[in-house]
Specification:
It is a single chain. By secondary structure, this protein is α+β, with helices and mostly antiparallel strands. It folds into 2 domains: 37 residues, no CATH class; 110 residues, no CATH class. Helix content is 34%, strand content 25%. The chain contains 4 helices and 4 strands. Strands 1, 2, 3 and 4 form a 4-stranded antiparallel beta sheet that branches. The two termini are 30 Å apart. The model has no long low-confidence stretch (mean pLDDT 86).
């Protein structure tokens, strides 16, 4: 990760070493290379554990709102874009001048409550082109998958 200033970087490094015993802190490129190899479903387990823990600790009850329903805030975001690097799941943007931009997007979702400043994140849903498809995926389809999951 890039940090705003060296003192913040030093504080974070100190916390990682003190709290988690991490001696050699990996850079963002290293982390991305490792995470890129994982299917999104692997990350789902961490979020499932988070929600299960919140449920057992009665934290989810604090997020119920009108008639014991939850409020879910959903938004898409881009996290990769390149005119050269791409994979089969990349979305494609065809420009008028003949150039192409390849990109990846993710749909994020959090439980929100108007009386709380904290949110509870749910596992993100990738917005990717299905294998063998010529069409890009969209936030609406990703939202359907996320809500079903």
């Amino acid at each position: 990760m890039q940090f705003d200033n060296s003192s913040r970087e030093t504080a974070i490094a100190s916390n990682l070493k003190t709290l988690y015993g991490i001696k050699n802190i990996p850079g963002d490129t290293y982390l991305r290379e490792r995470l890129d190899e994982l299917p999104a479903s692997e990350l789902q387990r961490a979020f499932t554990t988070l929600i299960q823990t919140a449920q057992r600790g009665k934290v989810l009850e604090q997020f119920t709102y009108f008639e014991n329903y939850y409020r879910l805030s959903i938004d898409g975001t881009g996290y990769f874009s390149s005119s050269e690097i791409h994979c089969q799941q990349c979305g494609e943007k065809h420009h008028r001048n003949g150039n192409m931009t390849y990109y990846h997007q993710m749909l994020g979702a959090v439980l929100v409550h108007p009386n709380h400043s904290q949110v509870l994140p749910l596992a993100p849903e990738p917005i990717i082109k299905a294998e063998g498809s010529k069409n890009n995926d969209c936030e609406r389809n990703a939202a359907k998958r996320l809500i079903e999951r």
